[in-house]
């Protein structure tokens, strides 16, 4: 009689056949997402965006002026800019504030640029005359997907702030063209999965961040193999998962904006 290892394959092969995500979710299942408006009462619009254990405060404040470069170049309209940061207690070990190092954190700069250009993609700046929308995203708790939670929450905070301007007659036209949301996807243990939490993000062979509009158009796809390669079929599957997740996020944004 052959030993079990010969009958059923090696233990590693058996474990590969029994795929379980660390959270127990299905491959196309997101974490619980909560979008709670009004978290920062002094802001013009604010949202606490929670993707599972990841929590980001997204706040928008509006200034009645534009950057100096716009004035010098006589550029018409307004502007939107974003800042992103992780609070010292947002991770398991204390994260130093950039000011304590005397320099900006390169990762923070990359993410805040992503947030800014993503929101500007769905904004008609000419309909925002002489105004700057400041987006501040502060990570309270990091468990994977902080940049995608920031983009999703920041759009909703901006929508709330712009609605207030429209209601008060401070804007003549709505400058926001469409919904915007973002989600992470990746290849974890040879399976394509949606909405990576930290254990999956840490061990993924491929990870991607996808930003899309409510009408289903892509704004940005950041995708890379972590010392690994991936196929066109896997990329297609990742994008399909991202479309599903972003559709769910847009529905949640609409629910927040719908009068109860």
Count of folded domains: 1
Order of helices and strands: HHEEEHEHHEHEEHEEH
The shape, in one word, is globular
Instruction: Report the CATH topology name.
Output: Ribosomal Protein S5, domain 2
Secondary-structure content class: alpha+beta
Radius of gyration: 21 Å
Please tally the helical runs, counting DSSP H or I stretches of 4 or more residues.
8
Binned strand content: 25-35%
Number of E-type strands: 9
Question: Could you give the distance between the termini?
Answer: 68 Å
- Mean pLDDT across the residues is 92
**Highest-level CATH class:** Alpha Beta
**Can you tell me the CATH architecture?**
2-Layer Sandwich
Account of the 3D structure:
- There is one protein chain.
- The chain starts with a helix and ends with a helix.
- The strands form two sheets. Strands 1-2-3-5-4 form a five-stranded mixed sheet. Strands 7-6-8-9 form a four-stranded antiparallel sheet, with helices on both faces.
- The chain has eight helices and nine strands.
- Helix 5 (106-120) packs across helix 6.
- The protein is 35% helix and 27% strand.
- It has 260 residues and is of the alpha+beta class.
- It has one domain: Ribosomal Protein S5, domain 2 (2-Layer Sandwich), CATH 3.30.230.70.
- The chain has helices at residues 4-8, 11-17, 68-72, 98-101, 106-120, 146-167, 198-203, 232-257; strands spanning 33-37, 45-51, 54-63, 79-86, 132-141, 180-188, 191-194, 206-213, 218-225.
- The mean pLDDT is 92.
